Structures are given as C-alpha cells and as structure tokens.
C-alpha cells in the first residue's frame, strides 16, 4: 500500500495546486515557487490563529505562541500563516531551516520509495542500526565534520547533544585520573547513590549570557534569561565573563584586545578557584557566538587563548555550534574563522543540520558501551534528508551565496544604523546571522511587531537586540524587501 502511494505521488507535478491526490495534499506542499513579495491580509495573529491558540491553550501553556502556520503553503523563504498572511521569514524556525520551506530536493527524498524504511521505522540506533548506516554517516555528517574530528555521535536535538558531550568530557577526565585503570568497586557502588567517588565533584566552566539548552545539565551552562532557569536546581559550576566587544571593531581594536585579555584572565582565575574548592573544571563550554544572549561575538584571539588555557590545564574545550553551524556564517562551522591550532575536543550541532549530535576527538570516545546512549540516539530519516541538503549546498554554492547575501544584508543594516543612530547601534553579523541593538527592549519589540505587520518576520535576542536568521537560499532580492520595510518602520518611529 505504501509503495503504491509513493508511486502515485511520483506522478504528480509540483506546479500549482494538486487536485489529483488528496491523500498527499496535506503531506507535501503543492506550491513550488516563492511569491514575489509578502502579503498581509489581517492583523498578526489573525482570527484563525487566535481561535487555534485558544483551543491549544486548553491543554498546554501557549504564552509564547505567535501565530499558527500553514506549512503546506509555505515555500522557500516565505512562511504563510493560517489566516493567509505571507511573510518573508528571517527567523526560520529559530535558525533551523537550511533551505527554506518545502524545498523540491527535500520533497524528492520524501517521495523516493528507497527512503520509505528510514521514515517508517525509527531504530534504537545504539543497538540496532539500519543497513549501511556507517556509509550514510560517512556521506553526510562526516563529510562536513570540523577538520580533525573523526568521531561522531548522533542525537535528537541540541540540548541532548550538549548533555551527552559533557558526559564524554567527564568520562575522559576521570579516565586520565585513573591512569586508564578500571573503576573501583567503591566507585561503582557509590555512583548508584549519587555520591563520591563514583559521582565525582567535577565542574564545567561556562559564560555569562550563554545558552546551551533547557535540559538540566545544559541549563546549568545557560545564563541568558531568568525564565529559562528559575525554580530549577543547578550545579554550582563556575561562570566567567564573555567578552563584550565594541563596534565598529576596526575602531576599537585596542579596547577589544584588552577585553579579551581581561576575560581570559578571569577564566584562568575561575579554573584555579574551582580546583582549590575541590571541584576541578573538566570542560569549558562556549558558543562560538552567543546567540540567545544577544549575538555576542568574541575575537579569534580570545578562542585561541581559551584553547591554550584548556590544554594547559588538561580541560576539554566544547564549542556549541547548534545555531552557528551548517554553513550559517559562510563557512560550514563558525569556529573555522578562529584558526585554532588544534581541533576543539567536542563540537555540538543541531538546527540546520536537521539532526542533533556531536563530533569529538578520539580521547573523548567512551571505552564502555551504553554510556553515551538513549533509545533512539537520533533519527536516520533526518540524516537521509540532510544528505539532500548537503547536495544542494554543494551544487548551488550556497556557502558563497550566504557570504555574499550576508555582506549585502550587513550593508543594509549599517546604512540604517548610520541614518537612525538614535535607534540602532552595534550592527553585526556573519552570513545568515545578523543583529542590531536598540536602546531598550520596548522600542525593539515595537519595531519587530510593526515589521511583521508589513510582512517581514524577524526574531529577538539578548536584552535589546533584533536578530535575523535567514536560510542559506536567501538572495539579494529578499534583502531588498527587508531593507525597504525596515526603513519604512524606522522612518515612522
């Protein structure tokens, strides 16, 4: 039956409305071309969205729901809501759409009979991986691995990727302490009671304003917004200051170098203090650019110095590329801009990679089975789709396009900042990641809402930053639409 339906769908053409096969009407979009521009018919959220939110609110908290989406009719860089409003989407599901909505190469993967098993069966990958899974990983995730990282673990999402990467760092640290010996019986017994020596007093150093996820271990590394952390027990782990750069960077070179040095000295001090307190640091975790915390960058020299400190102290360096990876900056990984002497020990990914997981150096590899594990440990169907995404990135030179479009976008932000200095400051960005600051949250939020009423959907971060998170397929024509409406709102502010 399933094979027949796939074959039936293969006969359909992705042009106009599909009236041939109602079975697939809600499974795949039948719209193949982007609109020329946004169209707004109602307030956003519109009446249908408001009614749907009321229904959903009966069973869960919907305070952050903005509007309901007609995903069948969203296409490319445009998202369509249930009220018929079509918005240029520069937030893209919180930075997680590499190619936009209903990309034809992804639809081809979904209707290919050869891929049915990957979507129909979700295996427990740690113990029952599918046929040729190693080959699939080699052709996809390993083909774009950060240089020098040959080990890989798939996971479901960014937060669980961070969680398990931390476990890898802890295990490696303890193996070195044991000199490679097996754990003692005392360690085995006490770990089941959450007490030392089986559960050692180790720590992870993170940074103020960081965000690594909402599960408990990742949350202990996250310090960007109070509602992420309130009421939850947390580890007493050290938290250092992430550099606050001044813009334009070329005008504040000396000040920024001094800021890097100050923050690195603080990192060293926190590591030494944790050691003296009997809770040594086993891992330093950092985003290459703090996203949720306000699109905060640090210099390559800062990360080079951070790696030096980690190596001097026998500490793993974890770079969290969940939001910054998969070509978002014009390089596949943001940390490629840092020119690190050695690979980071652990690099987490998710979002635009479609699957979660982490790369790691051989010394981070578990020596016993089942210690980095959960029932699914990822999803092969996501890796199948990722293969198509990577093909498009290569065939259409999307990294180069992202660099070009990103530079064009930055020029529009800089021009607006120069024209409206009382409203905008610190325009910054790389590729599809861009942000600009407002004097406070209220004027930012007001502008974002008014921009959406003109058909452009953007996001926010930090205390007063507007952030843009476009697809890799964004073009200059899309930037022109954004810039026109952005300037309209600024002019009327």
From TrEMBL:
Recorded catalytic activity of this chain's protein: 4-aminobutanoate + 2-oxoglutarate = succinate semialdehyde + L-glutamate
Cofactor section: pyridoxal 5'-phosphate
Species the sequence originates in: Elysia marginata
GO cellular component terms attached to this protein's record: mitochondrion
Protein name, UniProt field: 4-aminobutyrate aminotransferase, mitochondrial
UniProt similarity note: Belongs to the class-III pyridoxal-phosphate-dependent aminotransferase family.
PANTHER family: 4-AMINOBUTYRATE AMINOTRANSFERASE, MITOCHONDRIAL, AMINOTRANSFERASE
Coiled coil: none
GO molecular function: 4-aminobutyrate:2-oxoglutarate transaminase activity; pyridoxal phosphate binding
